[in-house]
Amino acid sequence: MSIRVGIGVDAHALERGVPLVLGGVRFDFDRGLAGHSDGDVLAHALVDAVLGAAGLGDIGSLFPSDDARYHGASSLDLLREAYRQVNEAGWTLVNADCILIGEQPRIAPHREEMRRCLSEALGGGEVNVRATTTDHLGFTGRGEGLAAHAVALLERA
Ligand code: MG
Questions:
Q1: 45 C-alpha to center of ligand 1: Å?
Q2: Which of 8, 91, 139, 150 is the right S-S partner for 48, CB 3.0 to 4.6 Å?
Q3: Residue 60 Cα, ligand 1 centroid: separation in angstroms?
Q4: How does the average pLDDT of the chain come out, rounded?
Q5: For residue 123, what pLDDT is reported?
Q6: What is the pLDDT of residues 15-65, one digit of tens each?
Q7: Which residues fall inside 5 Å of ion ligand 1, going by CB?
Q8: For residue 125, how far is its CA from the centre of ligand 1 (angstroms)?
């Protein structure tokens, strides 16, 4: 059996006047994630996890932040495109797990919808979405931003 694991990490600042999108789902929240795209840290961490597992570089090399095509892009579309390239390289997703780090918002009401959206972008593979806090420590604890970690397991198609 040929399998590969990859890891992804991301963080973005929370700003007023920006819609919050996490795992491809729009949250009702007073701030959103600033970024070149929609700032979806869960999708970005997953992009890097699947690219890393396939040995295909990172999100910055695939979707450069100075490329106007990705300004305001849906990160689910970026994840879809990254996974298309992973597929093309001969790999399919076994499963992925991602963790959002921050005190707010609560993800439970949107967890299943986020899992569905992320799974759909990853060819229907199993995606788990969880969240944790840092006991008010650091930038996530102070509510200045959100971070995410993800791991993905791929197998030879
Ligand atoms: Mg990012």
A1: 7
A2: 8
A3: 9
A4: 95
A5: 95
A6: 999 999 999 999 999 999 998 889 999 999 999 999 999 999 999 999 888
A7: 10, 44
A8: 22
CA of 1 to the centre of ligand 1 (A): 32
* For the chain, percent of residues with pLDDT exceeding 90: 89
What mean pLDDT comes out for the span 113-135? 97
Q: Rounded to the nearest whole angstrom, what is the distance from the C-alpha of residue 63 to the centroid of ligand 1?
A: 10
Gap from CA of 50 to ligand 1 centroid (Å): 14
CA of 71 relative to ligand 1 center, distance in Å: 12
Handedness of CA 115, 120, 126, 132 (dihedral sign): negative
In percent, the amount of the chain with pLDDT more than 70 equals 99
Closest CA to 145 of 52, 3, 10, 6: 10
Residue by residue, DSSP assigns 30-92 as: SEEE-SSS---HHHHHHHHHHHHHHT---HHHHS-TT-GGGTT--HHHHHHHHHHHHHHTTEE
pTM: 0.96
CATH assignment of the domain containing 94? 3.30.1330.50
- Please state the domain count of the chain: 1
Distance 15 CA to ligand 1 centre (A): 14
Instruction: Give yes or no for a contact between 6 and 54, defined as CB atoms under 8 angstroms apart.
Output: yes
